[in-house]
Structure formats: C-alpha cells, structure tokens
Amino acid sequence: MLILGIETSCDETSLAILRDNHILASETFSQGDIHAVFGGVVPEVASRNHLAKIVPLFSKIIDASGISPDKLDLIAVTNAPGLIGALFVGVSFAKGLAFALKKPLVPVHHLAGHILSAELSNQGLIPPYAAIVASGGHTHIYDVCSEPLCFKLWGRTIDDAAGEAFDKVAKMLGGTYPGGPFVESLALTGSPSSIKFPVALKKSENFSFSGLKTSVMNKINEGIFSYADIAASFQYTVAITMTDKILRAAKELNRKTIVVSGGVSCNKAIRAVFTEETAKEGIDVYFPAPALSTDNGAMIAYTAWRIFKDADMSNYMDLTFSAGDTRHEIDA
Ligand code: KG4
Ligand code: ZN
C-alpha cells in the first residue's frame, strides 16, 4: 500500500510517502528560523508559510519517491490537534488531492502519529506499551494496549508542556525559538547536579512545569550559577520527572516496554536518562529516530497504514476526546 502523509499542525510542513511501514521519501520544511524573531510560533505566519510550501514540497516528494500521484492508495493528513489555520492548509490540500485522484482520505490524530513514530523506527516494536509524548504542545502519558489503535490517557501536564518549558527557559537564558536544541547545547558544558530544582506533583499522574520555570528564573536572578549549569540542571530535572512518571505508569499498567516520543525526545541527554533509569527497572525503552521525533509526515502516513490495516477504528476515536492541547499559541 502506498500512503502519502501530510503534517502541518504547527510550524513544520512535512510530507512523506510510505510503502506500508517503509519510508520511500520524506521532505520537511521547518519554519523555526522564521518564528525565531517573534520568540515563538505565530499562528498566522505559520499558516501562510504552509500555504507557500505545501505544493512545492508535494512536487519534490513525488520526484524523490518516483511514485506517480495516481499510484497512491491513501492520502493521510493530521486533522487535530494543532493550530487551526495551519491544520486547515494541510487538510484542504489533502482533501483537494484525494478528490482529484479519487483516493481515500484518512484523518490522523497528531499524538497517535507521535506515539507510533517509535514503531516506524523500531520494526518489531508492538503494543502493549506505556508511551510518553513530550512536545511543544503536549506532555501526555498513554497506555497503548494490544487491541488495535487503543490509546488510554494515563496522565498529562496541567500547565506547560515539556517542550514549551524548554522554549521559555531558552528565552530566559538568551536563546531563541525553538529552545530545546539551544538548551541542550548550552547544557553540554554544565553540570546536571549543580542545582537541585523542585519536582512538582511527584505523587500525581499529572505533570506541572510552571514552578520549574519560576525556579530557573530565580536562579538566573541570583547570579550564582553559570547559564550552562542552570541549563544542565533544568534539563536533568525535566528528564528525571518524565522518567519517574512513565516508570510509575508502566508499573501500574503492568507494561514492560516504554516509548518516548515527540520533539523533546530528540534530546540526547534526556534519552540517556531514560535509558539508564529504565534499565535499572528491567524495562525496555524505545525512541523514534531523531528525524521522526519532531513533527513529520512519515508518522502520519504510518498511522494511516495502521488504521487501514486494523480496520476497527472504534478505539482510535477515543483518543480524539482524551487529548487536550496545552499549547499557548503566542509566547509574548
Ligand atoms: O513534536 P514537536 O516537533 O512539535 C509539537 O508537536 O509541538 O516538538 C517541538 C518541541 C519544541 O518545544 C522544541 O523546543 C522541542 O520540541 N525540542 C527539544 C529538542 N528539539 C526540539 N526539546 C529538548 N531538546 C531538544 N533537542
Ligand atoms: Zn508534534
């Protein structure tokens, strides 16, 4: 089966063509630099850039894959959650294409895409597992059961998402959007144990990162620690907070495997903490390839393939009602 996946929910315009669960071609235009001057994603600017890029990217992916459009079997597109104008561009393009080519159109939930991106990168990984999606808009833990496309929400952030906290802390430390890569490289020369930042909601299933942000600001104002030490300690606190919580979820849900996905899962230091802590508990941990951790069309195409393959969509539909989007659209 040949599937075109289209992702435009935030600031990446990304298209991919898969043959079943194999990527034939993938093209992404990242708007990070465009939004950097504003310090965060400006929804209207994102929509306009998706509009400018989507048709050229489609031509590019057709050329790169060598697949002519009439050979496609499915058109898959992210339909929620995300910035409404940005989603509109992808969905409108996908609808037009599906209508013109007379092909089925499959709406894909963005978080299902992020979770299943780990399967795309690790052939052989199959549910059940506990999954954490840590991105700019979400920090959500799901129980992914062995029934087809079954995602049950276990815990979530009640304020900032982990990626959002990285973006805001980066700004405090003099960096720009997106903040994750900036904090990660600043942290390379710092010590993760130099500052013991507080961990909120330790006993709850949920996360809260807003107090951590305030603590970072207080440490900056104290002027005692270097920015590198602050970055490394902040990063370690986010990592250990997420690791502790997903390990608790795995224990409660009786899962022996964990998946860590979303933009924050690109972070090498965070991956190392997950790997070390899960090994201590005898739990297997899987990540998507770094290029599939941030927003991409391949995870959307793969999810559509799973939907079509599994046919029963009743479990999948539950996800739409359980996932909230915590993104604060403009970070003024
Ligand atoms: O999954 P993603 O591409 O888009 C959303 O669905 O939000 O995630 C973007 C988020 C941003 O907040 C960005 O700062 C964060 O992922 N991120 C990182 C790293 N690379 C991207 N966070 C920590 N370390 C990184 N290396
Ligand atoms: Zn995402």
Outline of the structure:
By secondary structure, the chain is an alpha/beta fold.
Structure characteristics:
alpha/beta, disordered C terminus, binds 5'-O-[(R)-(carboxyoxy)(hydroxy)phosphoryl]adenosine, 11 helices, globular, five-stranded mixed sheet, binds zinc ion, 332 residues, single chain
Question: Can you walk through the features of this model?
Answer:
The chain is globular, with a radius of gyration of 19 Å. Helix content is 46%, strand content 19%. It has a five-stranded mixed sheet, sandwiched between helices. A five-stranded mixed sheet has the order 8-7-6-9-10, with helices on both faces. With 332 residues, it is of the alpha/beta class. Strand 7 and strand 8 (150-156) form a beta hairpin. It binds 5'-O-[(R)-(carboxyoxy)(hydroxy)phosphoryl]adenosine and zinc ion (ZN). The site of 5'-O-[(R)-(carboxyoxy)(hydroxy)phosphoryl]adenosine has 20 residues, from helix 5 and helix 6.
Total helical segments: 11
The low-confidence runs, each spanning 5 or more residues with pLDDT under 50, are 318-332
Number of strands: 10
Give the neighbour order of strands across the main sheet.
3-2-1-4-5
Mean pLDDT: 93
SS class: alpha/beta
Query: What is the H/E string?
Result: EEEHHEHEHEEEHHHHEHEHH
Strand fraction band? 15-25%
Shape, please?
globular
Percentage of residues assigned to helices: 40-55%
Bound molecules: 5'-O-[(R)-(carboxyoxy)(hydroxy)phosphoryl]adenosine, zinc ion
End-to-end separation: 45 Å
**If you compute it from the alpha carbons, what radius of gyration comes out, rounded to the nearest whole angstrom?**
19 Å
Task: Tell me the major beta sheet.
Answer: 5 strands, mixed
Q: State the assembly state of the protein chains.
A: single chain
